[in-house]
Amino acid sequence: MREIILINITGKDKPGLTSSLTNILAQYEVDILDIGQAVIHDYLSLGILVEIPSAHASSSILKDLLFKAHKLGIQIRFSAIDEDSYTGWAAGYGQERRIITLLGRKLTAAQLSKVTGAIAEHQLNIDVITRLSGRVFLDAPESLPKACVQLTVSGTPDSPGKLRGSLLEISKKTGIDISFHVDDIYRHARRLVVFDMDSTLIQGEVINVLAERAGVSDEVARITASAMNGEMDFKESFSRRVALLKGLDAEVLKETARNLVLTEGAERVIETLKKLGYKIGIISGGFDFFGEYLQSKLGLDYVFANVLEVENGRISGNIRGDIIDGPKKAELLKTIATVENISLQQTIAVGDGANDLPMISIAGLGIAFHAKPIVRENSEQSISSIGLDGLLYLMGISEREIQQR
């Protein structure tokens, strides 16, 4: 008679342990139906689901395994699985899976408790938990530590929107970033990443720096506030702000470019993505002069930004060509994807402002980075607690893999 047995092994990990146990199973011509292993702080948890052929008695196999476990100093437990239970489990293999990623400076039990509680409330099951961030040294913590765990969950929630809302509320209350998306084939096939520039790839807004040098910072601030209050659209507000820069010496552009401060983690994420073969670009509502400066400095593939007109060594107060607003950003992302012969599902877009929402919403992975509340609430993924290199974790890349590049 065929028997199905679940073998659970726990104890201090050591080289050759799995080999010793599976060697016993091999002697009895056992088939492996499923296997999984995790090691936490050198402590092993190994599960093996096996089918014992009718030609062999399970008692002999289990006795040999118990004896070997005793010699190895580990604990072993057996559970008989009936065929109906196994058939039901096997039939559920193709069910929908989602990835939930927790990302912050540190991870607390309270944060994990609230997230896992929301998962259970929506009838999802946690299949795998993986730490993506590096190990923390208690006596010598990094100046800017990171903590990231990835949960793979199965099942179909009654309302994905409600679950996403619950996770967003937990994020607001506990200060941890929570990413939530379907695990599909495109997750492993991204090919293009585009960044907004101001307040995303670099710190601050360049137009505010130029306005201060031109002595019009108060006027520019008033126009910005008016636009944020919905009293004018982006194109009108941008044109009016640029007009106030008229007459500013163009040498200020070079000086400002040299003093640009990259966002925390920007160089690291770009260096890693380039090694992985990604195409990387800027799609910005800022100015081309600074986008091209960053392109040269960081080795980017694409830059699309507003062309600031300069006449006789001074800023004219005009923009050449179309102004890049939100819809234009989405259009440009589509164009790059077409040129690269990839689908939008293979793209990633990162930005902080409302004018980034159109490209964030159509990208395969759209991320609100240290964004305004309205942007964060309308984006499925966000990073608010750490630097731009947190993007690598949201892509499923571990710290170990990053350091090996």
What report would you give on this structure?
- The chain is of the alpha/beta class and 405 residues long.
- It has three domains: 3-91, ACT domain (Alpha-Beta Plaits, 2-Layer Sandwich); 95-183, ACT domain (Alpha-Beta Plaits), CATH 3.30.70.260; 192-404, Rossmann fold, CATH 3.40.50.1000.
- The protein is built from 16 helices and 15 strands.
- The chain has helices at 17-27, 58-72, 83-91, 109-121, 160-174, 206-214, 217-228, 234-243, 251-258, 266-275, 288-298, 326-339, 357-362, 373-377, 390-394, 399-404; strands at 3-12, 31-40, 43-52, 75-80, 97-104, 125-131, 147-154, 177-182, 192-195, 279-287, 302-311, 314-320, 347-351, 365-369, 381-383.
- The strands form three sheets. The protein has a seven-stranded mixed beta sheet, with helices on both faces.
- Helix 7 (217-228) runs antiparallel to helix 8 (234-243).
- The longest helix is centred in the N-terminal third of the chain and has 15 residues, at 58-72.
- The radius of gyration is 27 Å and the shape is elongated.
- The two termini are 51 Å apart.
- The model has no long low-confidence stretch (mean pLDDT 91).
